[in-house]
Specification:
mainly alpha; Four Helix Bundle (Hemerythrin (Met), subunit A); two-stranded antiparallel ribbon; 11 helices; 2 strands; 3% strand; disordered N terminus; WH-like_DNA-bd_sf; transcription
């Protein structure tokens, strides 16, 4: 699809680009206050950059007050603030320079996730339905946005697995990575949690009943939640974006 801005980063100014992506992910709520960011090694693998580029980015974020670097056992980079003076420039760089590509990605993701949900409803086994129910129970019991995010990922992975097609599962994972700027985490605040919860229950119920049309319809609406969060952030830095289709 040509999503250069959404895939691996290019060598020029890589540390700066990593900082922009992470600052934008924090502003979106992909990481909450107090969350530990993925390790240097994991971030380097996710973004396909060197660990030195990640270190440069983390130093930049620390200097801007967005993260706190803790040394020693249990250390790492922890989210200290959701927004800083440098955040607006970071968001403009990470989102707005390639906004047309994000529009295409949003549309593509809704189409694919609707197909996955429909196929899961048609093919889910008893074990698949049980796995979906367990992930849903974990989501309902989440005590923090971070826990909700983890169970959300588990729920949608269980649904993708229920489609019984390894390529669809891989495509689901890739789309999550692209829409989350390569860090593979959905935005999650309590407001998003409350919006997502009825969708999750309705989607799990449609799959359990084998209602492919309903599952596809709900999935199309549900995956617009992340899109809306990205649009709101884009508006915050002064970009008027089209409404949800």
């Amino acid at each position: 699809m040509g999503h250069e801005s959404l895939g691996p980063l290019r060598p020029a100014r890589t540390g700066e680009q990593v900082a922009h992506r992470l600052a934008t992910a924090i502003a979106l709520g992909e990481f909450s206050l107090g969350d530990r960011l993925p390790s240097e090694r994991d971030l380097a693998a996710l973004l396909q950059v060197s660990r030195e580029s990640v270190r440069t980015a983390l130093r930049t974020l620390s200097g801007s007050g967005l993260v706190e670097i803790r040394r020693g056992r249990g250390g790492g980079a922890f989210v200290r603030a959701e927004w800083a003076e440098a955040s607006e420039h970071a968001v403009r760089s990470a989102l707005l320079e390639r906004w047309d590509e994000f529009e295409e990605l949003f549309d593509y993701r809704r189409l694919i996730e609707s197909l996955i949900a429909r196929t899961a409803a048609e093919r889910a086994t008893a074990d698949d339905r049980a796995a979906i129910a367990r992930a849903l129970a974990g989501f309902d019991a989440a005590a923090t946005p971070g826990e909700a995010r983890e169970h959300d990922v588990a729920l949608h992975r269980a649904i993708a697995r229920a489609a019984r097609n390894a390529r669809l599962l891989a495509l689901h994972e890739r789309l999550l990575s692209e829409v989350s700027l390569g860090v593979s985490a959905e935005p999650y605040t309590w407001a998003i949690y409350e919006e997502a919860r009825p969708h999750h229950h309705a989607l799990a119920d449609a799959i359990a009943r084998g209602d492919g049309d309903e599952a596809a319809r709900i999935a199309g609406r549900h995956f617009a939640i992340t899109e809306d969060a990205v649009r709101r952030l884009a508006r915050r830095v002064g970009r008027a974006t089209p409404p949800e289709p």
